[in-house]
Amino acid sequence: MACPRRRSSVTNTEIDVDDAIDEAFLTLGKDQSGSLTTGQVEKVLKHLLTLKDPHNDADSICAAIDTNEDGHIDTHEFHRYIHPTVATYALAGKPLDVEDILRDAFRGTIESDTVVRNRIIQTFMEATHDFEAASRKKSWALPVNKGWMHKLYGDIYDDPSDESAPRYKHNRGAYLCRRLAELQATPPNAKSDEGKAKEAYRKSIGCASEQDLEASAAPGSGGLRTRGWGGWGARSATQGDNLLRSESEAPGGEGA
């Protein structure tokens, strides 16, 4: 997919900036409603950047732009997202090249969000490892069934069946912690609605016992809270930047 390229003079007036933003929005290919979808963003991403995970990267971009999470990106949301990058180009006297602007804005969002997403995946992997180790301590003779833990991850983070879950992975931090905390807790009455719902869920993912479900949820919930996701709803850019900075500066972090 070829994106039209636009270069203004180095004067870069306010009108030039607005025109560049409008053209960038058109470049992404709005639908008949005048808005953009995740699929349209993903197509442009594949053209602009070499991506290892275009679907999740498109999810990250749309989460950053689609502030009301209605599944569509309108021109006002796009202006708010892309304006800082366009303004930076204009102040530096750089040509307002649409492809370059989109590439820089998208790359910054993807790089930040990929680290955060990987932290969540790492936490689940650690929780799976901890559960497996604890199970083997109880009995070396019995095989450890981890398949249901992958189903748990898929259902509460990767592709939630719960309609109340945030639309984008980027915004599922607090939801993820809440769901794990619910699974970790023992209902006061197994015959209550809460107890029945938990039992039905346990069976739906193929978990052998309530104890196994609670034992696996505990390290996942604790690990996420330790990494700063416990109080988040839709994570703000400032919170994300602070998290990434603290982790990269910590011993053993990316910046170590």
What does this structure look like?
The chain starts with 13 loop residues before the first helix and ends in a 7-residue tail after the last helix. It contains 10 helices and no strands. It is elongated. With about 260 residues, it is an all-alpha fold.
Shape: elongated
Distance between the termini: 40 Å
What is the CA-based Rg, rounded? 22 Å
Secondary-structure-derived class: mainly alpha
Which parts are unreliable, with pLDDT below 50 for 5 consecutive residues or more? 1-11, 230-256
Tell me the strand percentage band: under 5%
Helix content: 55-70%
| SSE topology string | HHHHHHHHHH
Main sheet record: none
Structure summary, number of beta strands: 0
Count of individual helical segments? 10
Question: Could you tell me the mean pLDDT?
Answer: 77
Index terms:
63% helix, 10 helices, mainly alpha, disordered C terminus, single chain, 0% strand, 256 residues
SSE inventory with pairings:
Elements: H1 14-27, H2 38-48, H3 54-65, H4 75-91, H5 98-138, H6 147-158, H7 173-184, H8 193-204, H9 210-226, H10 237-249
